[in-house]
Write a structure and sequence with these properties.
The complex is a heterotrimer. By secondary structure, chain B is α/β, with parallel strands linked by helices. Helices cover 33% and strands 22% of the residues of chain B. In chain B, the strands form four sheets. Chain B has a seven-stranded mixed beta sheet with strand order 6-7-8-3-9-10-11, sandwiched between helices. Chain B has a six-stranded mixed beta sheet with strand order 17-18-19-14-20-21, with helices on both faces. Chain B has a four-stranded antiparallel beta sheet with strand order 2-1-4-5, covered by helices on one side. Chain B is globular and about 70 Å long. Classes of the chains: A alpha+beta, B alpha/beta, C mainly alpha. At the A-C interface, helix 1 and helix 5 of A face helix 2, helix 7, helix 10 and helix 11 of C.
């Protein structure tokens, strides 16, 4: 199924570039959704993580009536000279953060992970979910031209022909047969049925640009801000778009500054040079205490990304499901979250997608049980097992988690031979996808992560999962339009993984950001740091 | 200043080291106008400390702790820094031992004089500077005045230092070994200059030296220092002819003299360290006449004759120096052990020729001395023989076998047969190895008979060899830091001899040693030569040493052989002008 | 030894310049070789996860990465000789445009630091060197010892903590608006310059002090004192000129150290200079930028060495006339 449709790119994406960036910015940030750290609300302020709402979306600040005016200054990790204004090409966080102010998507994920219409007015499926009717809302580009169906088709064509970021997300759209039927209407034809097309159209880099547009240095989108100035690797300045179709931003101006060094970024916030920053270190978060009082507040997003330890089910000794189960019982999840994440996270249940609607939260939470692990190993003839675990500092907390695991597994008679790889090499061809027992970081819902990791054409099949029946069942579920029914199949597929899969998802790490007490209106979103950069909703007091 | 007022008068001087130990004490010294007083002593005797004290100065945290220093009648001790500055360079000046390092490398020749003159309120114009230079026979023209110190020769640097010392016409100049490090010819010229200046300007000179022979020709009076005290002083001729102190007598006996070659007698033992000086007479431990009285208290200053002073209870018993003639040696037989033919070495792509077709032969049992000033090529030739320098051409053969250019190309046996002792024993021994280990090492690497016996056998052989070079048994397990220069050189000789070489190459082996120690080492070497039938190739700049040890001599100048022949002949009746000059310039008591 | 060859000052300088040119050429080879062995491939770094074999090949051809290495090198070197630093792979802009402002900002930071550092180092070095073991000497010794021991990023972070976060006197991060001169925003230069000064003074003062102390204890200086030259004159004419040789070398060393120190300080304070650019372009595998900045830094390094060499020859008479 080489032409299988792909949902929004899941947040795992650990290309080498991102890892390099991560390892060089002391906090080890990965610049994708889910990559800028993470959070499970540990029962403090804000909404609890109930498994139904993604990330326990939380509003930061004391609330009150929004005030208009002022300049909001945000410190980002930045991407150096590679930063771009091309909304369909941006990879690093700050590119996405800027594009989201200048341009808009057809659908946008809300804090619970549900795609909500943005430039789309409506999306209606045909009988078999391989034909859809998309209607656009009335909106104008910054130059005053109205948004039309042609702009959307032109954008898709550009993404397709140039193989840009979202190309996989729109891969199932048959562009030869898809056409506009009115200025605001497109009849979409898919090469195969897809039940959740809106999620695909919500891909983070499929911003709609005007047809025939090429001068990206002078952005022309429908977004809530217009560009004043931009210097890659340094900063940009934007102004409120007076002609915006929706609720206009509260702030007059938005300044986004690249500050790659985490200490410098934190100092800039402490010194009042910026109003909010993304991606702070665990230790800095700890300094901020519970983050609800004082001049600087902690902005914590739960369930942002999973930190799995993976076993290749096609390589010894993990070919035996009893061994895999034993390994899962040999980890003390609570202790690992404390030791590796300083508590800025929550325990996992060996599945991705915690908090998303498709997550199977009916499965019992697996607990630390070295005795049972030992007997499983004995039954498998693997008593006193010794395994090599590959780890590194590529992701904050990773090596600490591996070290904790090594200790915990001893109680089950398992000897973990820890192999520490330099951070810059960990995701190189030499190790990544080459080792049988390693660690990783993934974000996104079950269905998103499955596309990347569990299907025959998945680029990152870290566990070597090859269950053909399981995979067929997944593709079948994808075509279902009824969300509840679709999620039921997804949950059933998860219970197989829970028992038979190759993942030990011991915990989820939070996104850790910080904002001045002057900033109100931040709503966290597990896709990206700083509430998926919805700056139009923020205001200054 | 009145004609009979002393230029410099030091009385009861005490200078103490930071720890409180007296470096010099009870020093009495007088220098009159137009008089050269030589202050002679071996290293560590305190002569430089005395010299500096004459300027009211003490080095390195030492302090002048008593006594009196009068310059032209004016007491210096007790003066403030400002007043002292007015005296230094103006009434009493200083000529340093090593002018190369005592001249400011970042100051031109003329500016040195100008700065000095101006500091003392004198005109420093070009005419004055020119005159000051010309007075010491330096060129006074502008080009010379604009030179930097490093562009002068060693002799010129010393003349400039003297010009500086004389520029303000002081009453007295302290000259601290002003000719050490200069070749003999230059040294002789500088000494002439000092004499001339004394006569011309009525200058008083306190002339500090370790070399009795060198001062014999220049000094009006001589003061001998030992371990911080002046042990004897008197008119030069009288003191040399009839020393009253056993130490002076010992010094004279250890002094090599090319005009009157004689058997050298060293003084046994070594000078006690500053903090270990004995309670009584400091020389008592080395003195053949020492009695209990000597060890009980320091002898007072007595005057055995008019204008003589001595600190010795046994001054009257000190015998006059007795010079034994050198033992006659049978002429060496004809068989050449070492043959050097047409040796050529040049440096810098041929710019500097260090050896130009040098050839000589060394018969078995013979001692050949290579003599020359620095730059004559004697060391280069020695390095070629030793295999440390590859010649450009020519041949070196040992017992008929040609030797490879570099030592590593030679056989073990060849290396064993030819051993070397270097100039500086402080550098040629491994500081971490004890004396006996140092001697045993070559035995294991090159030795014939002991290699099989292992470590114990080689240590035994090393012990025997250390006895042979008369190193006190208790020092066999000491590291170099605990040994004196003479002891170190004995270890180095033992290390060379332990593998029973046939040819011993000695490169300036005594030039870093005091004369009394030098004499002892030469004495030892002479004895070993007879005993072991050694053949010696002896490199030196000192004709006196040549006369004391060598059979034949080869005189080198700028890489070429000037003259060669039996020692007696070359030294007494040199044929070549250069050799004549060399012989005439070399210091000697008998002149 | 006899036969020392005299050489004209011009000839000497020409020879040093020649050596510098050869050095730079070798550096260009090394920089090129080093960027070839950076882990990963530029094309796949740009395309990231969306890469297909086709798109990779296409992009490689577009970037000229499919040419033979030797040709890539000669093309690059040829461009350099014509003042063309290449084109950034990430930003698609000429490297010159991209780093022009930043070179200026870095040079400004370096210049301001040196202008303060050199006189301060000489002054403190001379004061402590001539009054060894005095109170000032001891205080400075302890401070500089600490300065030598603590790396720049720690010094910088501590200074930021003290002066920016706690006392609030200075901005913690040097957010100089793009396109504006750092000199127009002196408040943003204080912390970076201060950090460089603390780290730089530590080593330079010590070295100058040693040079001065050596000259002050030298035979020639003692000789000057024994000649009754007034003390101030001794310091001015005997001690300082001879300590100067050490001073020049110290300053050259410092300037070279600055090149490295600035990379760290720029990162700590978010100062928009080439050091930061270098770090970022290495991360984004923007090879042309890495090459240009690395070569630029090497060129500055070589140039500083050259200037120091020539200054030394001018200042030390012995070097001028002998060889």
């Amino acid at each position: 199924m080489t032409d299988s449709p792909r949902p929004p790119e899941p947040a795992r994406g650990l290309t080498r570039r991102r890892v390099l960036q991560g390892s060089l910015t002391a906090s080890g940030l990965l610049l994708l959704p889910g990559a800028l750290a993470a959070c499970g609300d540990d029962g403090g302020s804000g909404a609890a993580t109930d498994g139904q709402t993604v990330g326990g979306a939380q509003t930061i600040g004391s609330g009150g009536t929004p005030r208009s005016g002022g300049r909001l200054r945000v410190g980002h990790v930045g991407g150096g000279t590679a930063e771009t204004l091309d909304p369909n090409s941006g990879i690093v966080g700050i590119d996405v953060a800027r594009a989201r102010q200048l341009y808009e998507l057809l659908f946008d994920f809300d804090p619970r992970g549900v795609p909500q219409p943005r430039l789309a007015e409506s999306l209606e499926a045909g009988a078999r979910a391989d034909r859809w009717r998309l209607r656009l809302r009335a909106a104008n580009f910054h130059d005053g031209r109205p948004l039309t169906a042609d702009d959307v088709l032109a954008t898709w064509r550009r993404i397709r022909t140039r193989a840009l970021q979202s190309a996989n997300a729109i891969a199932a759209i048959d562009l030869r047969k898809t056409r506009s039927t009115a200025d605001d209407t497109i009849e979409i034809v898919l090469s195969r049925p897809i039940g959740d097309l809106a999620s695909l159209l919500a891909h983070r880099a499929s911003f709609i640009i005007p047809a025939g547009f090429s001068d990206f240095a002078r952005p022309n989108g429908t977004g809530p801000f217009t560009l004043v100035s931009f210097k890659p690797g340094e900063r940009s300045l934007m102004r409120r778009n007076p002609g915006y179709w929706g609720d206009a931003p509260h702030v007059d101006e938005l300044e986004q500054i690249s500050i790659p060094d985490s200490t410098a970024r934190y100092n800039a916030l402490q010194g009042g040079q910026v109003d909010a920053i993304e991606a702070i270190e665990f230790a800095q978060a700890r300094q901020l205490g519970d983050g609800t009082s004082g001049p600087v507040r902690l902005v914590r997003t739960a369930n942002a990304s999973a930190l799995p330890t993976y076993m290749r089910v096609d390589e010894a000794p993990f070919t035996d499901p009893r061994v895999r189960r034993a390994m899962r019982l040999a980890v003390d999840r609570e202790q690992s979250v404390q030791a590796a994440l300083l508590g800025y996270g929550s325990i996992g249940n060996d599945l991705f997608g915690k908090g998303y609607p498709s997550y199977n939260d009916a499965l019992p939470q697996r607990a630390y049980d070295p005795e049972q692990a030992r007997s499983l190993l004995r039954a498998a003839g693997q008593d006193g097992l010794t395994v090599k675990l590959y780890s590194s500092r590529a992701v904050p907390g990773m090596l600490e988690a591996a070290t904790a695991y090594k200790q915990q597994a001893q109680a089950a008679g398992i000897t973990i031979d820890l192999q520490t790889v330099p951070a810059a090499d960990y995701y190189s061809d030499r190790y990544y996808l080459k080792v049988a027992f390693g660690q990783d970081q993934w974000s996104g819902s079950f269905e998103q992560t499955t596309l990347d990791g569990l299907l025959p054409d998945s680029g990152f099949n870290i566990t070597g999962w090859r269950d053909a029946a399981w995979q067929r069942r997944f593709v079948q579920a994808q075509s279902m339009t009824d969300e509840a029914a679709r999620n039921d199949v997804y949950k059933e597929l998860q219970s197989t993984l829970y028992d038979e899969g190759g993942l030990i998802v011991w915990g989820y790490v939070d996104f850790l950001d910080a904002a001045s007490a002057r900033v109100e209106g931040i709503v966290t979103n597990p896709l990206y740091n700083l509430g998926y950069y919805e700056f139009r909703n923020w205001w200054l007091v | 200043m009145s004609a009979d007022a002393a230029a410099l008068e030091i009385a009861g001087l005490v200078v103490r080291a930071p720890g409180g130990a007296a470096i010099v004490e009870q020093v009495e010294l007088t220098v009159r106008g137009a008089e050269i007083v030589a202050l002679v002593g071996e290293s560590g005797s305190g002569k430089t400390t005395c010299g500096l004290a004459a300027l009211g100065f003490a080095r390195d945290g030492a302090r002048i702790d008593g006594g009196s220093v009068r310059v032209a009648g004016r007491e210096l001790l007790g003066l403030g820094e400002r007043e002292l500055r007015g005296v230094r360079g103006r009434h009493v000046s200083y000529v340093p031992q090593n002018p190369g390092s005592a001249l400011n490398p970042a100051m031109r020749v003329g500016d040195h004089l100008r700065e000095l003159l101006r500091a003392h309120g004198r005109a420093g114009d070009d005419a004055v500077v020119q005159a000051a230079l010309e007075r010491v026979h330096l060129p006074g023209e502008r080009a010379f005045r604009r030179r930097w110190p490093h562009q002068l020769s060693g002799g010129q640097q010393q003349r400039l230092a003297i010009a500086l010392a004389l520029a303000c016409e002081p009453a007295v100049a302290v000259m601290d070994e002003p000719t050490t490090g200069l070749d003999v010819v230059t040294q002789a010229r500088i000494l002439d200059e000092v004499r001339r200046l004394r006569d011309a300007s009525g200058l008083g000179v306190l002339y500090i030296s370790h070399d009795l022979a060198a001062v014999a020709s220049i000094a009006d009076r001589i003061a001998v220092m030992y371990a911080g005290r002046v042990v004897e002083q008197g008119p030069a001729a009288e003191l040399l002819a009839r020393p009253c102190h056993p130490y002076t007598r010992g010094l004279l006996a250890s002094l090599p003299d090319h005009r009157e070659p004689r058997r050298l007698r060293g003084i046994g033992g070594a000078v006690a360290a500053l903090d270990a000086r004995p309670a009584g007479c400091a020389f008592a431990p080395r003195c053949p006449l020492a009695s209990d009285a000597c060890r009980a208290q320091a002898p007072p200053l007595t005057s055995p004759a008019a204008d003589r002073a001595v600190r010795c209870f046994h001054a009257a018993q000190t015998p006059p120096p007795a010079f034994e003639p050198l033992p006659q040696r049978a002429a060496a037989d004809g068989a050449a052990l070492l043959a050097v033919r047409d040796l050529r070495v040049s440096f810098g792509g041929g710019d500097v020729v260090a050896a130009d077709d040098v050839g000589f032969a060394l018969a078995r049992g013979e001692c050949l001395a290579l003599v020359g000033e620095s730059g004559s090529g004697k060391t280069t030739i020695a390095r070629c023989v030793a295999g440390l320098q590859r010649p450009d051409g020519g041949e070196i053969a040992l017992a008929g076998e040609p030797l490879a250019g570099f030592a590593r190309g030679r056989t073990r046996e060849q290396r064993r047969r030819l051993q070397i002792v270097f100039q500086n024993p402080y550098q040629s021994l491994n500081p971490r190895e004890t004396a006996i280990e140092a001697v045993a090492r070559p035995l294991r690497e090159l030795g014939r008979d002991h290699a099989a016996g292992g470590r114990a056998a080689s240590l035994r052989a090393a012990e025997q060899m250390l006895e042979r070079v008369q190193l006190p048994r208790r020092l066999a397990h000491s590291r170099p830091a605990a040994l004196s220069g003479g002891e170190l050189q004995r270890v180095a000789i033992a290390r060379a001899l332990v593998v029973e070489p046939e040819l011993l190459l000695c490169d300036e082996i005594t030039s870093a040693l005091d004369v009394s120690v030098q004499a002892a080492v030469l004495e030892l070497l002479g004895g070993l030569r007879d005993e072991l039938g050694l053949t010696l190739l002896f490199i030196t700049h000192d004709l006196g040493v040549v006369a004391a040890i060598a059979d034949r001599v080869l005189v080198l100048q700028r890489g070429s052989v000037v003259e060669t022949g039996p020692v007696g002949q070359v030294v007494r009746a040199p044929a070549q002008p250069y050799t004549q000059e060399l012989v005439a310039a070399a210091p000697s008591l008998s002149r | 030894m006899a036969g020392v060859k005299r050489q004209s000052l011009g000839g000497l300088v020409a020879r040093r310049v020649g050596i510098a040119v050869v050095l730079l050429w070798i550096v260009s080879l090394l920089v090129f070789a080093a960027t070839q062995v950076l882990p990963g491939d530029t094309a796949s770094a740009i395309l990231g996860k969306t890469a297909t074999p086709d798109s990779l090949a296409q992009l490689r051809a577009q970037l000229g990465l499919d040419r033979p290495l030797l040709q890539q090198y000669t093309d690059w070197l040829g461009g350099l000789l014509h003042g063309d630093l290449g084109r950034s792979l990430a930003a698609g802009l000429p490297v010159g445009d991209l780093i022009g402002d930043r070179v200026g900002a870095t040079l400004t930071l370096a210049a301001v630091t040196l202008v303060l550092l050199v006189p301060l180092a000489l002054l403190l070095g001379v004061l402590t060197g001539t009054r060894r073991d005095g109170k000032l000497d001891q205080v400075v010794s302890w401070i500089t010892l600490a300065g030598v021991a603590v790396p720049e990023f720690v010094t910088g972070t501590l200074l930021a903590l003290l002066l920016a976060t706690w006392l609030g006197w200075l901005p913690a991060v040097s957010l100089i608006p793009p396109g504006e001169s750092p000199l127009a925003h002196p408040q943003y230069m204080v912390l970076p310059v201060l950090t460089l000064l603390v780290a730089g003074l530590a080593s330079t003062v010590r070295l100058v002090r040693v040079g001065v102390a050596q000259a002050a204890a030298a035979d020639y200086t003692e000789m000057a004192r024994l000649s009754g030259i007034p003390e101030r004159r001794v310091v001015r004419r005997w001690v300082l000129p001879n300590a100067l040789a050490a001073g020049v070398q110290v300053i050259a060393l410092t300037a070279q150290w600055l090149v490295g120190g600035i990379v760290i300080v720029e990162t700590v304070f978010q100062y928009p200079g080439i050091g930061q650019t270098l770090v970022q372009s290495v991360q984004s595998q923007d090879i042309p930028v890495v090459q240009a900045v690395a070569l630029l830094i090497a060129a500055i390094y070589v140039l500083l060495n050259l200037l120091a060499d020539i200054a030394l020859v001018l200042l030390v008479p012995r070097l001028r006339s002998a060889r």
